[in-house]
Amino acid sequence: MGMKSIIFPSNRKIIGQLSAGEEVAISGIIYTARDEAHRRLFNTYIDCRKFPNYLKESCIFYAGPAFYPDGSLSAIGPTTAARMDEYAPSFYEAGVLATIGKGPRDFSIVEACKKTVSVYLITYGGAASYLTRFVKSIELVDFDELGPEAIYRLEVEDFPAVVGIDSRGNYLDGAVTR
């Protein structure tokens, strides 16, 4: 099948061409967001029906970075994606094209990916130090009081992932719980 390169921000036509099991190399701009950032964004969305513009046509990496004392990135690895399942459908509807995490998702995420032409990508768990080599820059964007759970803008190059759930409802064994 070969590895496919994806650049973010992207569009639904490109995302719609990805297939479950396909290896991808992600370049461009992606954003981190974990549990508390998701709660805050979701509550803002419910209140005003508007997500931040930076999330349009974006990719959210379920991760919280760790830093060396000098402020440089020391590690960034995926967190369990299922913890964001209650929020993900709204994020896809608001314009997020992809999420990256580890572990299986609820079947509702399959339906949300089909409805919105979005995908769930899986990357290496337990390899947070290794994944830093694909991060070219990192910048705090939102919720700085959350520390590692704040939203960070990452510039990545050839960040490795596998399509766990594609936009047609296909998924890898183990990528979905029933």
The total number of structural domains is: 1
Whole-number mean pLDDT: 94
Q: What is the CA-atom radius of gyration, in angstroms? A: 15 Å
CATH class: Alpha Beta
The helix/strand class is alpha/beta
Poorly predicted runs are none
What percentage of amino acids are in beta strands? 25-35%
Q: Looking at this structure, what is the CATH superfamily?
A: Fe-S hydro-lyase, tartrate dehydratase beta-type, catalytic domain
Q: How is the main sheet built? A: 5 strands, mixed, barrel
Give the count of helical stretches.
Answer: 5
Helix content: 10-25%
Specify the overall morphology: globular
CATH topology: fumarase
For the termini, the CA-CA separation is 28 Å
Task: Indicate the topology.
Blueprint (H helix, E strand, L loop, with lengths): L3 E5 L3 H4 L7 E10 L2 H14 L10 E3 L4 E2 L5 E3 L12 H6 L4 E4 L3 E2 H10 L2 E4 L5 H4 L3 E8 L8 E15 L10 E2 L1
Parallel strand pairs: 1-2, 2-3, 3-6, 6-8, 7-11
Antiparallel strand pairs: 2-10, 4-5, 8-10, 9-10
Please explain how this structure is put together.
- Helices cover 21% and strands 33% of the residues.
- It is an alpha/beta fold and 178 residues long.
- The chain has a single domain (4-167), classed as Alpha-Beta Barrel (fumarase), CATH 3.20.130.
- Strands 2-3-6-8-10 form a five-stranded mixed barrel. A two-stranded antiparallel ribbon has the order 4-5. Strands 7-11 form a two-stranded parallel sheet.
- Helix 1 links the parallel strand 1 and strand 2 (23-32).
- The chain is globular, with a radius of gyration of 15 Å.
- The protein starts with a strand and ends with a strand.
